[in-house]
Write a structure and sequence with these properties.
It contains three helices and no strands. It is an all-alpha fold and about 70 residues long.
Length: about 70
């Protein structure tokens, strides 16, 4: 990807993020943070703490509620 293509993609992404509600943006940020925490814990000790599992469960439901996803499990 050229720098010009990358810059166009960044503009497109920022425009998409600006169209989200505050709650949707917060949900996406929280989801990203919890996924990072999960991956770090798993990578470092091949285990996930109960607290991280709880956070993942919470952001899962926030994501479903904010983005009108259908619960499938």
């Amino acid at each position: 990807m050229t720098q010009a293509d990358w810059e166009k993609e960044q503009i497109k992404n920022s425009e998409g993020m600006s169209s989200l509600t505050d709650e949707q943006r917060e949900t996406l940020n929280d989801t990203f943070d919890v996924l990072q925490e999960f991956l770090r814990e798993y990578r470092e000790m091949f285990d996930v703490t109960s607290e991280t599992a709880r956070k993942m469960h919470n952001v899962y439901w926030a994501y479903i509620n904010e983005f009108n996803k259908i619960h499938k499990y």
